[in-house]
Amino acid sequence: MKELSPDEVVDIIVSLKETTDETDFNRLLAQLGVLIDYSGDTGNEKALREAVGVCEHLVSHNILSEHRSLLFYFCANAWSHLRRLTDTVSGTWEKPSSVECENELLNLRRAIREESFSKLSINERCQILTNLGNVFSYVGRFVESIDYWNMALDLDAGFSMALGNRGYGLTHYAGVLYDDGHRNLFMKSAYADLNKALTGDIHKGARQAFREYRDWIEQVLGADYVKEPIDFGEFSLGDTEEEVRYRDWCIDHRLFLNPLNDILKESVVSHDCLTTPSIVVALNEGPYYPGFYNQLKQEYVSARFLFYEGLSAEATHFSDRGVLLYNTLDYPSYSVATEKMKAAFRIAYSLLDKIAYFLNKYLRLEIPERSVYFRSIWYEDGNKHKGVRETFTTLKNWPLVGLFWLSKDLYENRADFKETIEPSAQAMYEVRNHVEHKYLKLHDSMWSGPMTEDDEVRAGLTDSLAYSMYRTDFEEKTLKIIKITRAALIYLSLAICVEEKRRESEKSGEGLIANMVLDVWEDEWKC
Which phi and psi (to 5°) does residue 440 adopt? Predict the structure, then answer.
């Protein structure tokens, strides 16, 4: 586009807010996207903030649904440019660019939730998903970022920016792994992504960065290793068809507590090998950190299996026979399978506060036990307005930063924590609140849906005391919280590894450290 003065750009962007001609709207929308990128390239902060205002104005004024996904995408791009104007370092705690980063994440997530997202071009959808993966990785949520890059590549296997950024992200993921074998496989996978990305049409800056990372990996691992294929062989998935189906399902949904499941869907990843690295404690302290992580793992894998059982049930269970229930005429879902899924949701969600309890002890935060919550543990006195605790801000710990940013997904019914970066956060909170303390009712697909306020005919037949939702919607939410919990447990383990290395480097050299070898708890003892 022709060169414009900063004020000219601002004037054009502001004028778009007054658009009323729908036939001309598509052209103006495209112009808005170009102006946002132009403003970012020229460092025009005022124009970018005006663009955010225009996007928010158009969305709030009930613009046609077909445009909403693109508007959220443009709004995210404006916030992204604003973030880059104020920040150059990823993976750190609260900082001047945090607001920009939060809004970028929120708007990208809003974009993919809109029905109109599926109507965008494949290229536009790939861009949105790739950007979302990039921001997740930027804030330390490197496990979850992979899902978004994978979704982009499912749409277009040759989308170079998704390939390159996934390779870039996997390289950094590898850097915090404490298993050398896992680290090498991650870097090998990253090399393949970066190499393929460089064959595509990408801009000069990305090409240079991707080439530097690819060449560095080849130098570290050797040209032969990074290029030769690896035959992982076939590992047993179990002794019964039922067990094989379960483990296949876990592999396919990337649910094993095994970092390799983030890059592989082979039988070699079909075990939950992740645990705590070695932790140095005082002589009078027992092995409670490995014990606590054992418990977190056991609860996670139990929730995962309960969900699978509830999801895969095909026939009435014997425990449901002879149980007298009334037909409430709204196609309710009553069964032990349904309750297993509810239990899985409860267990998975509860693990987040337990992770906070672990951190409170491990990082010596000394927060009173009754005040330890995953959403608020990060802040002085649990008050968001007082800022992040100095204990955290002094640490350079990328996985721990990831846990902090994951906590921003959670809604709490407290003034400080009602704003989140997850559009569905309040709905997840309501589901948890009702399944734990109130009355959650699931319905089969034949249910006609929630009653509207003016539907007087159905009022007398509606269970107004229940929080009602389709069973399929609840299944999606349960899988989501299980995946979130898996990511959190990986971040926790790797954060401990980073912190132990820091503590070791700061030791004065005084005193002796004795090893305490812990044997494994054999499978046959688990009953």
Answer: -100, 130
